[in-house]
Amino acid sequence: MKTLLVTGGAGFIGGNFVLRQMRQGGVEVVNLDALTYSGNLRTLAEVEDNPNHDFVLGSIGDRELVEYLLERYQPDAIVNFAAETHVDRSIDGPDAFVHTNVTGTFELLEAARWYWRQLDGERRKTFRFLHVSTDEVYGTLGPTGKFTEETPYRPNSPYSASKAGSDHLVRAYFHTYGLPVLTTNCSNNYGPYQFPEKLIPLMIDHALQGLPLPVYGAGTNVRDWLYVEDHCRAIETVLAGGRPGEVYNVGGNNEKTNIEVVETICALLDEFLPDSPHKPHRHLIQFVQDRPGHDLRYAIDAGKIGRELAWQPEETFETGLRKTVRWYLDNRDWVEHVKSGNYGGERLGVESAK
Ligand code: NAD
Fold first, then answer.
1. Is tRNA-binding there in the keyword field (predicted)?
2. Considering only Cβ atoms within 10 Å of each terminal Cβ, which end of the chain, N or C, has fewer?
């Protein structure tokens, strides 16, 4: 049985990843999460009693704790999801972003380096440190072109700058110390268990309450969307077959303007809730002042992971969004529970984590 140290596994993508590992079986997961406002144990309810899942409350920035966990559990890999992730929050308060995403990743890398050096021959060769990152590090695109792994880093928000900093540290630990790292840079994710400050769950939640659906600017910013399960499968694929030191871009080939996304959600809600007093839901859309430094367009060229590791997304945007809207309708108790915590940043806008 393989053992993984997963960080940030009570959040959106990490939570989906952990649930997937437990459903597949054959893996032991040590789940280290600081349970910030976006981490929630409700997401992990299904695996609460699973003997192969151990939840540890703590920070990736606590090197002593991480070293203790590494020594105790002897993992075969570390998968780092832990981060501050919301662009709007990074504009209002960048400190936490630098603290967790840059310094936290540094502490985690130091602990990993200490542990890896003690491993013996075969385990030392097969150990991996997989760092989960974003396409936002590449900055913004004009109307054409796509981000490749060779695109220079040009982050524009404190969030993306802090993720870029973490990516650079991860890269340096390979080139300087030989630590077998892998980095994935992924486009916008959507799916179950996403905190309802991000575009898709925010819109669903507001629409159900008949509240305005705030769309930044003219709604013409373009994002490339990937269903979270496809992202989790990509991470598994890179972990199993990726070449140490390499970067893999992950994307869904689903470019959509924000207004298209919101209108599609409204149409799905009209279909699923024929008796809703808020029909047609698109009448709730309101355009609001744009976010400062708002990147115009992101698009990912995921050719490398396709060619080298035969990964392809399985969901289209239409099938994935249908599943997602259905999930939020069927899991109102989860939404209400996570909202009852520290939810309510002042700038609860329309943009996703990205
Ligand atoms: P999220 O905000 O839902 O979850 C983050 C998790 O990290 C939470 O459970 C939180 O409690 C935990 N955390 C925060 N600080 C921590 C610390 N110091 N120590 C341990 N745990 C800590 O985020 P997400 O959307 O699931 O994103 C996960 C990762 O994927 C992030 O690194 C993000 O940059 C990256 N990413 C996200 C997207 C997206 O669209 N959501 C796309 C590409 C990449």
1. no
2. N
